[in-house]
Design a protein that fits this description.
Layout lengths: L10 E6 L3 H9 L7 E7 L5 E5 L2 E5 L1 H4 L3 E3 L3
Antiparallel strand pairs: 1-2, 1-5, 2-3, 3-4
Pfam families: FeoA (PF04023)
Protein name: Ferrous iron transport protein A
Keywords: Iron
Amino acid sequence: MTLDRMKRGQRCRILSIPSELIRAQALRFGIAEGEVVTCCEVIPAGPVVISKNRQEIAIGRGLARQIEVEGSF
């Protein structure tokens, strides 16, 4: 499953971030492989809002579509 497929309130673990460029972009947001995040909001045709350590981060659909995640926690 990819990050853009998460539903509101769902928790998941980041499994893989495919390319160096995308990994660098995700690290700027404080997101790395192995991190557990919670989906706060999925805005139709817009970003996916996730939270990690009480910080909310809006991830664009293009980036979210390329981040592999593992089910609910």
